[in-house]
Specification:
Number of strands: 6
Number of domains: 1
Strand content: 15-25%
Strand order of the largest sheet: 2-1-3-4-5-6
Mean pLDDT: 90
Number of helices: 3
Order of helices and strands: EHEHEEHEE
CATH topology: Rossmann fold
C-alpha cells in the first residue's frame, strides 16, 4: 500500500510500515514540514497515498472527505502516550491493511480497536 506519514510520526513508524512491505513516504521526505492540513490532504489525493497521522483534525469528514482519497488513518493516542504504544498501534494498523483496503475510508486506530467510517451508499 502507498502511504504518506505526517510529520508527527517518526522514523520508527516508517521503518515498521516499510518492513511490512508498504511504499512509505513522509512529509519530511518531501520537505513539507509546516504545510497546511489542506495542502497535505491535496498532495495525498494527487499522489494516491493514504495519509497516516496523529492529527485529529483529519477525522473531520466535512473538511477532509475520505471518499476522494486512498484512505485516511488517524492514530489516536491516550492522554499518557508512550513510544511502545504508538509502535503497537502502527503494527495493528499494518496487520489490518494486509486484509482490507481502506480506499475512501477514514480509520481511527485506538488501543484495542480500529473504527472505520465509510461513505453511506444507501439512498
Amino acid at each position: 500500500m502507498r502511504l504518506k506519514l505526517d510529520e508527527n510520526l517518526g522514523i520508527r513508524g516508517q521503518r515498521l510500515l516499510r518492513a511490512a512491505g508498504h511504499d512509505v513516504q513522509t512529509v519530511r521526505d518531501q520537505a513539507m514540514q509546516g504545510a497546511t492540513d489542506q495542502h497535505l490532504y491535496e498532495v495525498c489525493v494527487a499522489e494516491g497515498r493514504c495519509l497516516v497521522t496523529l492529527d485529529l483534525d483529519f477525522a473531520d469528514l466535512l473538511r477532509f472527505p475520505p471518499q476522494a482519497t486512498s484512505g485516511i488513518v488517524v492514530i489516536r493516542m491516550p492522554r499518557n502516550p508512550s513510544l511502545v504504544l504508538l509502535e503497537d498501534l502502527v503494527r495493528s494498523f499494518a496487520r489490518v491493511i494486509e486484509q482490507r483496503s481502506l480506499t475512501g475510508e477514514l480509520w481511527i486506530v485506538e488501543p484495542g480497536r480500529i473504527r472505520v467510517h465509510q461513505e453511506n451508499t444507501d439512498q
